[in-house]
Write a structure and sequence with these properties.
Elements lengths: L8 E5 L10 E2 L11 H13 L2 E14 L4 E13 L10 E4 L14 H8 L3 E4 L7 H13 L4 E4 L6 H17 L3 E4 L6 H4 L3 E4 L1 H6 L10 E6 L2 H9 L4 E4 L15 H11 L4 E4 L7 H6 L4 E4 L7
Parallel strand pairs: 6-7, 6-13, 7-8, 8-9, 9-10, 10-11, 11-12, 12-13
Antiparallel strand pairs: 1-2, 1-5, 3-4
Length: about 300
């Protein structure tokens, strides 16, 4: 996935005679025998577009099942390159803002990439229930000033009316700082409050038969197993949080997955996944190295 200095994403149209011809895709190609992912990335981008890749980072790994084949996409975000892209194989090219990608008919396997492109690499979960609402909102504002772009409003001990008032104030702050707010509440609260989506528990996930909100809203979900991740993808939810990766003070009795188990489950997942449990900002690169969209956290991201 190639992103220019203006934040636009490059897509190309597949020739009609190829598999899934006529659809749009993110430029790239197959790994050849003996190649590393980095080597294949540089070779394919140069052969297809005439660009020299100068800087890239992992974005997402996706396994997708077509009726006639299974593909594993190891997607990297290319942020620095030399040259001007040209369709060396006769393919049409388009530069699009991330939010415009959904307007084009993309390959089915590429749909989770669109979500990953639009999601940030940090997912803030608000801390202890706000006994002092003013202090809670001040703490949220400090986190937003420091760059939080996706926030889950978690306040389990509040009454419905108290939670609604807090959500209205939190949403106002998020709007001021260009951030999205997801409610840790019933999905039918989202539209009346004007929030950006909902975060579901694993118990809510188990009870779902279909996606509870349309595509205008984000739906995140807490997962604790490979089966949870598979169900979230089947229901076409937008992203998952997988936990606990490491030991955490909030759930001291929970058995941590460890990075290897986390990575194995994420590799088989078909949607972006955040790592949760014992996360700190300095662990972002490590998490992404195991396939994570990024990190989620309360104590590690909820600024004092």
């Amino acid at each position: 996935m190639i992103q220019n200095a203006a934040g636009q994403i490059l897509i190309s149209k597949r020739p009609a005679h190829l598999h899934q011809g006529g659809l749009w895709e993110f430029p790239g190609g197959k790994l050849e025998s003996g190649e590393s992912v980095g080597q294949a990335l540089k070779r394919e981008i140069y052969e297809e577009l005439g660009l020299e890749v100068e800087a890239d980072a992992p974005l997402i790994r996706i396994t997708h099942h077509y009726p006639d084949r299974v593909v594993l996409l190891d997607v990297h975000r290319v942020t620095q390159f030399a040259g001007c892209p040209e369709g060396r194989e006769g393919q049409l090219l388009r530069w699009l803002a991330p939010e415009q990608l959904g307007n084009y008919p993309l390959l089915p396997a590429d749909r989770p990439i669109v979500t990953a492109v639009n999601l940030p690499d940090r997912y803030l979960i608000t801390g202890a229930d706000p006994l002092d609402r003013s202090a809670f909102l001040l703490r949220m504002e400090r986190s937003l000033v420091k760059g939080a772009k996706l926030v889950q409003l978690r306040a389990k001990s509040l009454t419905p009316s108290e939670y609604g008032l807090l959500a209205e104030a939190a949403l106002k702050l998020c709007r001021e700082h260009g951030a999205r707010l997801l409610l840790n509440a019933a999905p039918d609260w989202v539209e009346p409050l004007g929030a950006d989506g909902v975060h579901l528990t694993s118990r809510q996930l188990a009870d779902l038969d279909e996606r509870p909100l349309d595509r205008n809203y984000w739906i995140g979900v807490s997962c604790h197993s490979a089966d949870d991740l598979a169900r979230a993808a089947m229901l076409e939810l937008d992203f998952a949080v997988l936990s606990p990766v490491l030991p955490t003070a909030s759930h001291p009795d929970a058995q941590p997955l460890g990075w290897r188990q986390f990575g194995a489950w994420v590799e088989a997942a078909r949607l972006p996944v955040y790592a949760l449990g014992g996360m700190r900002p300095g662990m972002l690169d490590e998490a992404q190295g195991y396939g994570a969209q990024g990190i989620a956290g309360i104590s590690g991201l909820w600024l004092a």
